Amino acid sequence: MIKTFYSIYPAYVVLIWLLILCSNSMFFAQVINQTQLEEAKKNVVRITTYKPDNVIETGSGIIAWSHKDGTCLIITALHVVEESEKLEVMFYDNRTTTLPAHRIERFDKDKDFTAIIVKNVQNAKELKPFNIVSDTTVKEMDKVFTIGHPGQSEWYPSSGEIRKSEDILYFAFSRESINPGNSGGGLFNDQFNLIGIVVSKRYGDGKALKINRALELLKSWGIPYNFNLIEKQEVMLGQQTTTSIWWYIGAGAVVGTIAAYFILKEDPIPDEEQLPGPPNPPSH
Q1: Does residue 98 sit in the same domain as residue 201?
Q2: Domain shared by 103 and 194, yes or no
Q3: Residue 252 shares a structural domain with residue 229
Q4: What is the pLDDT of residues 18-54, one digit of tens each?
């Protein structure tokens, strides 16, 4: 029986190691993504537009810059705010209050991009700059997320994947549902770092202006912004470190198990049936 146990022992160890590694990686990813999602929501705003004929629409925007005096610059899609008679903005940390907003004179109709100004924002100086990554780090089939306000939902995350990244201006990405409430909001990678601004939907796919192109427009307009550019390897460092530790532990377990298996194969432990019994008592 003991011999049989040691013959299947390596398989048990490898199976247990794989289960531990997979469960730990998924748990780590879920915890990190939820934390990063909550942080990302703080820089996403809800924009309500009042247009002629009593038309009220909802869109999204991204905080690009904030000042301690309570002024915030919001970047968004042009079609969200154009032809509006009044704009109101709601912030994630203060969802009970809406603030009036004003359009800036600068916009790019072809790229569907503009910005608005909001004043008297509470705790504006406490807002952290958004982390962004270069569009060169984004590849086709990468997992992406949006945060917007579809229907009656607020700050609702949706997932998809990059369909096309070679276009110099835009990302095309898949989405289960895209509606005007997501327009103007952010497109994020799997670490919830900003990679684009959602501008439109076409044939079931979404289109996002690459963040690099959006920042070039702001710079050409002389408009300040405050983002943290993060390299891909830095973004993944925490997850890579934890995963690497588990790979080292797992590799050590496998190597040790294989070594033990061959040692036992050369000098097997006898079955219980073959173990010598107690010596016979001496005869008188």
Answers
A1: yes
A2: yes
A3: no
A4: 554 444 444 444 444 788 888 889 999 999 999 998 8
